[in-house]
Amino acid sequence: MINGWEISPLVKVCKIGDGNHSANYPxxxxxxxxxxxxxxxxxxxNGKVSWVDLKFITPEKHAILKKGHLKEGDILFTNRGxxxxxxxxxxxxxxxxxxxxxxxxxxxxxxxxxFLYYFLLSPSMQNHYLVEKxxxxxxxxTIRQINEIPIPFPPLxxxxxxxxxxxxxxxxxxxxxxxxxxxxxxxxELFERYLQEVxxxxxxxxxxKPMGELATFRNGMNFTKGSKGEKIQIVGVKDFQKNFWVPFxxxxxxxxxxxxxxxxxLKEGDILxxxSNGNPELIGRTLLAGRVEGKVSHSGFTIRIRLNNKxxxxxxxxxxxxxxxxxKELVDSGNGVGIKSLNQGSLxxxxxxxxxxxxxxxxxxxKLDALSEETKKLEAIYxxxxxxxxxxxxxxxxxxxxxxxxx
Length: 407
Fold this sequence. Notes:
Layout: E1 6-9, H1 10-13, E2 14-18, E3 36-39, E4 44-45, E5 47-49, E6 55-57, H2 59-64, E7 75-78, E8 86-88, E9 97-98, E10 102-107, H3 113-121, H4 123-132, H5 143-147, E11 150-153, H6 156-200, E12 207-210, H7 211-214, E13 215-219, E14 225-235, E15 252-256, E16 271-274, E17 286-288, E18 296-298, E19 302-307, H8 314-321, H9 324-333, H10 344-349, E20 351-354, H11 358-400
Parallel strand pairs: 3-9, 5-8, 14-18
Antiparallel strand pairs: 1-11, 2-10, 3-6, 4-5, 7-8, 7-10, 12-20, 13-19, 14-15, 16-17, 16-19
Helix pairs in contact: 6-11
């Protein structure tokens, strides 16, 4: 026990309730465009309630759903599904309503609501939720469990002092994190801008050729996993993250019914592109195959580009296809209503800028490699700063609730 602090079950120092679970729970067709805000877990962002994607219910429905009526200053806590998200209700959401995944806490006079907010965010409490949560299909932290949470707290003036220190520290950390995130974005954009400029500011003797003159194309396989047959690796859409090369060591192994032909397998220098999977953001993402060991094919949502022209290096073509301009052309060339899909015809017509010699291509690639390495170093530095700031927040919170926090 910290000298001068008390420890009490949470239910003794604040009122506790949750959203509605009754048969009157609003259905999707009962939501309206204006009315009483109906707060869900996804509306709780960075400690506040967000208007983004907010749902509304009618005043009449709100009057029926009496359990989740909120007041300014209430603390919200997700106790079903994604457990442990915390937010404070501001004046915009006075008298709003709650869905069934969120509990609310209303502090009594002995407890500062911001003190409770920070306590619920502390590392020890976040770990407590993980250890004590239950349920298989839907994780939950019950109201009974919430009632029994032991909260240590000093007299109100000391709570207010601690809150003031935490507010100041967290504001400084948030500003530093914002700067680090902006620098991280700038580092990533630096390489993208240079990559774009390389192909926009063409050198003397460059020419443009339709990709159909440079390569052949083949759609991937639509397959079912059999219990007997040939075991091979498959490149799927999930492998097109931020990689440049096909991640062979991470590919899924499958057993294919029937026999495949040699033309179905990847070779070194093959380029793969996402053809379609219902998400236009993924169409046109590319990977380059390095040295292929064993039998590797690719899924029906992808298309293979295999060069048959020695005037261009596979790595140079893949680099170009990763520029914003080329990605836009790939996406725009897709056909279909609603869900676009690349096809061999659309790929054939895309114009590819080609330097006059392989030596020039290699020189450009060396510059891109050097800049890419520097960019990755910068990204690692700024990402580490962001991670360190998050750890600093945890450390400060831990000190706050162990009586070690000083100005």
